[in-house]
Amino acid sequence: MALILTVVLPVALGFVAAFLFAASAALQRRAVLRAADSDADHRASTHRLPVLWLFRRLLRQRVWLAGWTTNLAGFASQAAALHFGSVALVQPLLVTQLLFALPMASAAIRQWPPLRDWLAALAISGGVALFLSVEGAAPLEGEADRTRLVIAVLVAALTIVTLLQIAQRRRPMAYSALVASCAGICYAMSAAMMKLTTDSLVNDGVVATATDWPGYLLAVTTFSGLVLGHQAYGSGSLSVAVAVMSTVNPCVSFTIGLLVFDAVPSTEPGPLAAVAVAGALLVAGAFGLSHSPAVRTETRSTAVHGVYPIRGNV
């Protein structure tokens, strides 16, 4: 019975959460494409982040609301999994959402993913899972140095602005990947703010939390991640966007843990070798997905019908 509660149940809930997150991304992508198709004059595509212009239309779509309901169910499953199991067990399972997103993305172009795409997705999922399994990866425990945290926020904001600037006029796949990187940074910052806000709420109460700035920055980073994630889903490949966000998020969280939470990385040969293998798997998987004919077909289709800037030139 103990084995079921500590291993089997959290593993099952972790896989359910991964599936729900992938389904949510697919539904949100469909909503963005529908909103873009309703923009007959292509006015949205003249903006640096076209999805911002379409947000009012998204809020009125049942598909988008269904996507958010699915996303909330995913968070609930993740929370339940973390309640019964450890972070080291549950978090690596969540990266399998790429394996669920791959067939969902291929369904949009009615083309089953070839073997090379599955191998690339397995490599990326395995690389991120291996990285998260290393002791001390994405550490956000302990007391944060708020001065360093402010510096980290400023550096993250500058990085996002720079990546968005670089993304302009790039090809659809590169554009989507760069925007997805920005979303991953936002979600990593959101995790750090969530840690501070939760601790403040438990230790200091509601009033103290309401007058402290991390809670408001949590709202800003979460909303920014939402907007950028929608832009990434609706301007390129869903598989590539999910892969990039799943990779950037834990890597940035790891960096925040080192710089802000004074986490000490392991210097043992085993963890260092695991990180090296994880890096090799990520590179191999990224190369495979970026050269996949199915992913390129999906990207071209999304660029024409989605929210890729200056899409009339695609």
Automatic annotation (TrEMBL):
<feature type="transmembrane region" description="Helical">
    <location>
        <begin position="240"/>
        <end position="260"/>
    </location>
</feature>
<protein>
    <recommendedName>
        <fullName>DMT(Drug/metabolite transporter) superfamily permease</fullName>
    </recommendedName>
</protein>
<feature type="transmembrane region" description="Helical">
    <location>
        <begin position="149"/>
        <end position="167"/>
    </location>
</feature>
<keyword id="KW-1133">Transmembrane helix</keyword>
<keyword id="KW-0812">Transmembrane</keyword>
<feature type="transmembrane region" description="Helical">
    <location>
        <begin position="118"/>
        <end position="137"/>
    </location>
</feature>
<keyword id="KW-0472">Membrane</keyword>
<dbReference type="InterPro" id="IPR037185">
    <property type="entry name" value="EmrE-like"/>
</dbReference>
<feature type="transmembrane region" description="Helical">
    <location>
        <begin position="81"/>
        <end position="106"/>
    </location>
</feature>
<feature type="transmembrane region" description="Helical">
    <location>
        <begin position="272"/>
        <end position="290"/>
    </location>
</feature>
<feature type="transmembrane region" description="Helical">
    <location>
        <begin position="213"/>
        <end position="233"/>
    </location>
</feature>
<feature type="transmembrane region" description="Helical">
    <location>
        <begin position="174"/>
        <end position="193"/>
    </location>
</feature>
